[in-house]
Amino acid sequence: MDGTTGGPLIETARLAWRDGQPVSEQFGDVYFSRENGLEETRYVFLHHNHLPERFRELSDKDTFVIAETGFGTGLNFLAAWQAFRQYAPASARLHFVSVERYPLGSADLERALALWPELAPLARELAHNYPQPLSGCHRLVMDQARVRLTLYFGDAVEAFDSLEFSADAWFLDGFAPACNPGLWQDRLIRQVREHSHRGTTLATFTAVGRVRRALSDVGFRMERVAGFGPKRDMLRGVLEQGSHRSAEPTGQILVVGAGIAGAMVARNLAVRGYQVTVADQGESPGAGASGNPQGALYAKLGVQLNDQVRLALAALLHAQRFYPAETPEQWHPTGLLMMGYSEHERERQQKFLRANTYPRTVLYPVDDQKASDLTGIACPQGGLWFPRSGWLEPARVCQSLLEHPNIRTEFQFRATRLLPCNNRWCLSGEGRQDLVADTVILAAGHLTRQLMPVTGEFRIKAIRGQITGIPSDRLTAAPRAVVTGARYLNPPADGQLVTGATFDLRDNDPLVRTNSHQENLEGLDSMLPGLLAPRIKPTDDITGRVSFRCTTHDYQPIVGPLVNGEGNTLGGAWLFTGLGSKGLMWTPLMAEYLADLITGEPLALPHSLTRRVHPARCLAAARTSESPA
Fold it and tell me: What span is annotated as the signal peptide, if there is one (predicted)?
């Protein structure tokens, strides 16, 4: 990859293999010591940051944060992960933040790490989750959510300007200063200080005086110590100024809503060790908009690569990693065709392809014949094929997510009001005892606004959507992949295929209507002519379901602190709503980000994307320069 293509694709590392070890052709330097790279990592970074001792001292639910300036082969990360498993208590968590301008391709990464058989189980898990070569921030969750890796593909200075974290230890790696002087510029040294706190340590294989002086100038007490193997010297340091890093208090956590948003954030917090109560007015999980029998996982990516597209792409890729790992029984990886169903959509897709280059593992164009081969039905048009997408069973996903010993559920809890009481939050319900918590998350879809204890107008709305269930024998053929366009169509499940959904503005009717079925059938017939059996009617064994999507003025989610009409935050209260029709896509990454905010851990989103989802933007007085999706 030459780095000149449009879109998010990033140039990967060009390697030469000498005596079985990787050497960077971009910088003319080795990735690790020829004597023993793993022992060098343990000596330079683990030993001189005192990590075994510090890991042993961690308390229940503590998170230890390591930051690194060059991910390279991932060897340093794996060595730290291995030591964390060996020394840290089982309830503690490791968060590793790293940046790489020229990421290794997957095959090169696996080849490099194969040099260390004792790391093989960890290396396999890293390789399985390793991001595709797309610029920006990637959040990987591994080791049963005990280990998180925030990996930024791009320039280091850009990364540390964008990311929110405070490191307990630094691995200053990334080729010798003489080979890669850009990495060691003064701005990056200042960023190391900005992302540190009193007691933060650092270590680096280099002993260059300029680097030592720059780190001393920003407050680190530096010392030169013996290097590894034939290398005479290296540097280590500790920050003796500033304040200590403190975790955010959470206490008892209450989630209002057991749809995909509420279930996802409850599970995320539960696996981090927190006790969570989930309250919902329904009789079971997914009683609202998350209760449809099938839901497609996909994103409609814009032509121009902007923050809106980056957010959707990051969410899609994270979801494609999450569901196979966490809810495999409810995940159906069939692939998905985004059909060029109209002249306008075909033109849009052509502009998209001219302006962007994506890895084929994300998407690629197909003609009508290839589309027909992939989906198993006659497709009059080609489109964009998403090989790692598919469909899910939303209500069963919600049920699966809530099955955790740290989660308690309160169903048929019809919430009436949420009020602050004695520095806590109190949720009242019809005929039920109040629920009291230190932290509350409103994830009640279109009902969220009714429970927000604030004045002011928020630009959120409910949109009626009716789906149509068609018996398999009412189609001339059944697709084996998801097809989206004017309508979507999922492969059969339990003898039915789901299509839809209507998009009914200013319509509060909760009942299934024949005219909405007719609209769905006509839209499907227009997109895939001849697929419906002749003379099928909306009353012919057709089933349906109505739900109300919650969406925003800019069609982006609402994730963050509860704000009042003046834009001031209310401590301990959070919002997670506005997911529209893409809840399955948004929720894994957005729940990860929200849990980071609540617990004070490194954030999964860079600053440019946190602004896209902040609740304050939805105040009626707020204005945004972004156009709706």
Answer: none
